[in-house]
């Protein structure tokens, strides 16, 4: 009986954890090389995105895309993003825990 209760509790925790985790948007695959899979870059030249305010990230990506903010690396990545994709990326990285 005790083993069944432990197994049920463990399963419940795993299910809860999987529903709480936010899947990375498809466009995030292009961000991983510089900013890391969860937005916690380990390279000092590339900022950490994890835990930043979504509105800040959204504005920065739109500014790169629209040419208001200049960066030879970021502009090509941001250029093809729609407003919806930018919002999705910003929300994803804002939800990540900074390390």
Automatic annotation (TrEMBL):
One of its GO terms (molecular function) is electron transfer activity. Residues 1-23 form the signal peptide. Keywords: Electron transport, Heme, Iron, Metal-binding, Signal, Transport. Residues 7-97 form the Cytochrome c domain. InterPro entries: Cyt_c-like_dom, Cyt_c-like_dom_sf, Cytochrome_c_Oxidase_Subunit. PANTHER family: CBB3-TYPE CYTOCHROME C OXIDASE SUBUNIT FIXP, CYTOCHROME C4. This is Cytochrome c. It comes from Thiomicrorhabdus xiamenensis.
